[in-house]
Amino acid sequence: MIDRQHPLLIVTDLDGSLLDHHSYRWDAAQPWLERLRQQLIPLVICSSKTAAEIVPLQKQLGLSGSPFIAENGAVLQLNSEQRLQPHSGSLSYSALCQQISRLQTQFHFTPFHQLSDVEVSAVSGLTLAQAELARQREASEVLIWRDSEGAFAAFQQQLAAQNLSLLQGGRFWHILPADCSKQAALAQLLTTLSATAGGKLTTIGLGDGPNDATMLDSVDYAVVIKGYSKQPVELHRPDKDNIYFTAHYGPEGWSEGMDYFLTPDT
Ligand SMILES: [Mg+2]
Q1: What fold, for 93-177?
Q2: How confident is the model at residue 1 (pLDDT cuts 50, 70, 90)?
Q3: Per its UniProt record, what NCBIfam families does this chain match (predicted)?
Q4: How far is the centre of ligand 1, averaged over its atoms, from the C-alpha of 210 (Å)?
Q5: Is 266 a residue whose pLDDT tops 50?
């Protein structure tokens, strides 16, 4: 059992966590979604997806108006009306794309802004409508690497010199301002929300991939959902009792983790 002295907040990854890796369904998590809604416990989506992809999903999940973190922490939405600025710079998406495009004289890669919806659909397996939402980017860019491994190291160095960081996603690479991360966006969100709540919030985080590790290290209780990634999810927190590794994948594992930390009738 966990510390319930403070209000709870749940933060979750989507693909492979709340949503099934293959079918994108969440049936197994539905009872918990209803319980959280009844108890007014906020559920914050923290994903590499764009805001344009997350908003309709929030509606389907019954989470409209809840805060969310999009584009791996480069976008932070507080509620239906309010956006927070998750990084110190004010690099617009178009300026970021221009900056990245200049590197195409030295390296071979294709950024999403140079692809059509049809092309993104073809390389990602997303439907055309989903590809259109995935391309509505605001603060980070996605690219397909087409150069050698050696060139990749040089590419990464050049990005770092320009204050940009590179994150590996499921299929593609994500480029974002260096001071953006899921963890940093969550810290900023918690500062804002705990000020409103008048004190500390107890957080439970759920994720299945290496890109969730910083988020899972920063919450009070971490659920590592069994995933398909070849790389393990390595956490560095010392409080091993507050980490739970699920036996099940996706929404079944999500529900299992919630059961572990919160008895269903609390
Ligand atoms: Mg995932």
Answers
A1: Threonyl-tRNA Synthetase; Chain A, domain 2 (3.30.980)
A2: low
A3: HAD-SF-IIB (TIGR01484), HAD-SF-IIB-MPGP (TIGR01486), PRK03669.1 (NF002976)
A4: 8
A5: no
